[in-house]
């Protein structure tokens, strides 16, 4: 096997990286447009929530306090649920990344032989896989990163408009660098499964299942602290009297006479940042990225074992 | 004829090469041969003889399970820029147009790409560069795949059933293009087919695979000269006693007709005739026990691979 | 310029077909000294045969002194072959004509004359004596 294990010999002049990147972009044009449309649409929703969408809910809060938010039938309630649409979209998006990586990105190419076509141009399988992973990863990081930043912005500005419960807590603790790391793990797992299975449909199914496992252990289900020991996210609701004093909410609900009796002219409400947020986010991000690295290493190992590299 | 390339004298050399797929049997077993540079070689054998496997290993797409393979003085896959491979199913990206497929060729093979050559091949087939690959017929796809392979200006072309789904006109024309390219650049070509007649005119060299091994290898003229079809009254033993190897014999009236590998001249009394390439190949395929024959230029040097 | 036709079923080796067709063109005056033969590339592009086959045919023609390869320029016709057209009016042809007329009046059929002619031809121009 001496001639085969030899890889230190003078490397063949490789095509410049830009050509390979352009080729990958061209091959996955449709997926690229879908991703850009997804990012633009989700960003639009977040911007709407950040601006015009928040106004009505804010008025209900100003008038009746937190009671106004839970009792409101209509806009405030809708605002609270729409707030989570973006989260759902991000989840769907990250699932789509994993499915894309397993199916069209890798397995379909191996199944139809187009990967082998690329390897018989002046591109080694290793460089091919590197480009296949790096280009989508860049778009995933940029897109998800942008959305996560916006979302964080939205939480800071309007988290007070959310109806308390497990949902805001789950969102709070899952939103951060780990939101970006999760679809990266999806990409790596999808690619690994695509390389291992080499057929489109099974690869799609397995990638979906693998990412479901990742998803199931994220956020509120973060295994290291247990679902029921999830740290509390404290909220503080205050009523503001005519003198400007902040007092406890008198629980008047929408009883205007009651509000007048207590001289309440406004309300404030906020979620108090948890000291647990960063340790939890960083630990989760670290674990996700480590798993990503393992999946990528396994993918390259598998590729090297199959194809003669060089 | 330009000869600016520094092509080595041996384009492809295998020594004890083998490939096994999982629990199935071996696709190739203990294959040893060398393909001199500049030859246009037919890779012939029945279905499942390992033709595609050999070509894919030479292209650096599959790892051999045993033995060594040297391609253009390097390991397989080391000189991807100088080797072209056309797979049997002619894979192309269905979502691209022809023009995009060719620009992909230019981007992935920047050092050697010949855009004019690739465009001419597509043009000769009357194809619109703006049409999508997915809308093309099988033969049209083959044409685009060949344009991609030839546009790369390879020193070694590995073609797996290149002409299988082409109409006779396109087959003749593309074979002509391929031969012209070989004439101009001295390209080494190894192309597989199980239709021997298709290759007889175009090739000057033969590798016959059977049962995972090389059965015949060498210049076609040399191989034909080494064999004779004899007809006459006698028995196969009469021939073997003289040192000839009887590959195949059948009765002809009171005597026999046999394809023999000669050792010196055949005795008077036998009518002799040079076999056709097809006869030679078929006789060897029907006689798996016949010893292999590799001409000296096709025999690998012992311990050739020391790199 | 000559365009070669390759007949795959003729049983005649491909390079021999090229040699014969070139000679035929010389005999008929279709090629004259100084004319360039097509390059190997041109021939194989049109006929889809192996380039070495063309080179082998050209080497054979060169060996016979009919053509010469000029480096970097191509292969050129050097000599000509006696043409049938030139022989048409010679005394030899007239004698053969007179003989044929006598044979006919003696009652010989076309096939008899053919066999006669071939036998005499073989006697005076043994096979393999080109």
From TrEMBL, chain A:
Source taxonomy: Bacteria, Bacillati, Actinomycetota, Actinomycetes, Kitasatosporales
Organism of provenance: Streptomyces griseorubiginosus
Q: Carries keyword Nucleus? A: no
The answer to keyword Protease applying to this record is: no
Can you tell which superkingdom this protein's organism belongs to? Bacteria
Q: Which UniProt keywords apply?
A: Membrane, Transmembrane, Transmembrane helix
What's the protein name? ABC transporter permease
Residues crossing the lipid bilayer are 30-51, 83-107, 128-151, 171-193, 200-217, 282-303
TrEMBL record, chain B:
Source organism of this protein record: Streptomyces griseorubiginosus
InterPro entries given for it?
Answer: AAA+_ATPase, ABC_transporter-like_ATP-bd, ABC_transporter-like_CS, ABC_Transporter_VariousFunc, P-loop_NTPase
Task: Kindly provide the name given to this protein in its UniProt entry.
Answer: ABC transporter ATP-binding protein
Entry keyword Secreted = no
Out of the domains of life, which is the source?
Answer: Bacteria
Enumerate the spans annotated as ABC transporter domain: 12-236
For this UniProt record, the keywords arranged alphabetically read as follows:
ATP-binding, Nucleotide-binding, Transport
Q: Name one Pfam family in it.
A: ABC_tran
Molecular-function annotations in GO? ATP binding; ATP hydrolysis activity
PANTHER family, alphabetically? ABC TRANSPORTER ATP-BINDING PROTEIN ALBC-RELATED
From TrEMBL, chain C:
Q: Which Gene3D superfamilies match?
A: Winged helix-like DNA-binding domain superfamily/Winged helix DNA-binding domain (1.10.10.10)
Where on the tree of life does the source sit, at the highest rank? Bacteria
Residue ranges annotated for the HTH gntR-type domain, each copy included = 12-80
State one molecular function term (GO): DNA-binding transcription factor activity
Listed Pfam families: GntR
Record's keyword terms, sorted: DNA-binding, Transcription, Transcription regulation
UniProt keyword Membrane, yes or no: no
Q: Which CDD domains match?
A: WHTH_GntR (cd07377)
| UniProt name for this protein | GntR family transcriptional regulator
Q: Which organism is it from?
A: Streptomyces griseorubiginosus
Record gene name: ytrA_3
């Amino acid at each position: 096997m001496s001639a085969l294990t030899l890889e230190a010999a003078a490397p063949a002049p490789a095509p410049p990286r830009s050509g390979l990147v352009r080729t990958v972009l061209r091959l996955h044009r449709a997926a690229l447009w879908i991703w850009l449309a997804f990012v633009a649409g989700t960003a639009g929703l977040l911007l709407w929530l950040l601006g015009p969408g928040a106004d009505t809910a804010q008025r209900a809060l100003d008038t009746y306090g937190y009671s106004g938010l839970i009792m409101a039938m209509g806009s405030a309630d809708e605002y609270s649920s729409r707030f989570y649409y973006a989260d759902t979209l991000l989840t769907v998006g990250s699932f789509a990344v994993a499915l894309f990586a397993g199916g069209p990105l890798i397995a379909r190419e191996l199944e139809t032989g187009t990967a082998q076509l690329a390897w018989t141009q002046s591109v080694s399988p290793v460089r091919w896989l590197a480009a296949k992973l790096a280009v989508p990863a860049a778009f995933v990081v940029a897109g998800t990163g942008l959305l996560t930043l916006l979302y964080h912005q939205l939480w800071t500005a309007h988290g007070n408009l959310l109806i308390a419960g497990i949902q805001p807590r789950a969102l709070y603790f899952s939103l951060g660098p780990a939101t970006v790391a999760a679809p990266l793990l999806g990409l790596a797992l999808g690619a690994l499964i695509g390389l291992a299975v080499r057929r489109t449909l099974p690869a799609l199914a397995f990638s979906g299942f693998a990412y479901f496992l990742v998803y199931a252990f994220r956020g509120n289900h973060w295994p290291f602290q247990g679902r029921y020991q999830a740290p509390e996210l404290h909220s503080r609701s205050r009523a503001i009297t005519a003198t400007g004093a902040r007092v406890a909410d008198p629980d008047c609900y929408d009883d205007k006479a009651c509000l007048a009796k207590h001289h309440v002219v406004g309300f404030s409400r906020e979620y108090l940042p948890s000291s647990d947020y960063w340790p939890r986010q960083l630990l989760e991000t670290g674990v996700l990225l480590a798993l990503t690295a393992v999946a990528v290493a396994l993918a390259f190992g598998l590729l090297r074992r199959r194809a003669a590299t060089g | 004829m330009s000869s600016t390339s520094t092509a080595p004298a041996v384009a492809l050399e295998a020594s004890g090469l083998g490939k096994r797929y999982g629990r199935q049997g071996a696709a190739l077993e203990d294959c040893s041969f060398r393909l001199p540079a500049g030859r246009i070689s037919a890779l012939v054998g029945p279905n499942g003889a390992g033709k595609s496997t050999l070509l894919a290993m030479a292209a650096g797409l599959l790892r051999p399970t045993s033995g060594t393979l040297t391609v253009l003085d390097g390991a397989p896959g080391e000189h991807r820029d100088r080797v072209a491979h056309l797979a049997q199913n002619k894979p192309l990206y269905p979502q691209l147009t022809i023009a995009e497929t060719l620009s992909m060729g230019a981007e992935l093979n920047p050092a050697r790409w010949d855009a004019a050559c690739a465009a001419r091949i597509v043009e000769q087939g009357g194809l619109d560069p703006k049409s999508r690959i997915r809308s093309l017929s099988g033969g049209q796809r083959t044409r685009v795949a060949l344009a991609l392979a030839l546009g790369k200006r390879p020193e070694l072309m590995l073609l797996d059933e290149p002409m299988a789904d082409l109409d006779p006109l396109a087959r003749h024309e593309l074979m002509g293009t391929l031969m012209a390219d070989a004439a101009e650049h001295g390209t080494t070509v190894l192309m597989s087919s199980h239709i021997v007649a298709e290759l007889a005119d175009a090739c000057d060299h033969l590798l016959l695979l059977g049962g995972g091994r090389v059965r015949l290898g060498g210049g076609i003229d040399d191989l034909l000269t080494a064999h004779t079809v004899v007809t006459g009254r006698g028995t196969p033993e009469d021939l073997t006693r003289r040192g000839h190897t009887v590959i195949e014999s059948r009765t002809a009236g009171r005597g026999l007709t046999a394809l023999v590998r000669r050792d010196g001249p055949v005795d008077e009394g036998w009518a002799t005739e040079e076999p056709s390439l097809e006869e030679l190949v078929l006789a060897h395929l029907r006689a798996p026990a016949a010893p292999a024959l590799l001409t000296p230029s096709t025999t690998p040097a012992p311990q050739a691979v020391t790199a | 310029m000559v365009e070669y036709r390759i007949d795959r079923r003729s049983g005649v080796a491909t390079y021999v077909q090229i040699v014969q067709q070139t000679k035929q063109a010389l005999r008929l005056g279709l090629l004259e000294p100084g004319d360039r033969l097509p390059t190997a590339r041109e021939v194989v592009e049109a006929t889809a045969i192996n380039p070495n086959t063309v080179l082998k045919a050209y080497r054979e023609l060169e060996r016979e002194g009919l053509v010469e390869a000029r480096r970097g320029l191509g292969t050129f016709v050097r000599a000509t072959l006696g043409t049938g057209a030139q022989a048409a009016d010679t005394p030899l042809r007239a004698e053969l004509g007179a003989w044929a007329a006598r044979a006919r009046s003696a009652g010989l059929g076309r096939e008899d004359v053919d066999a006669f002619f071939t036998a005499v031809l073989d006697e005076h121009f043994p096979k393999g004596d080109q």
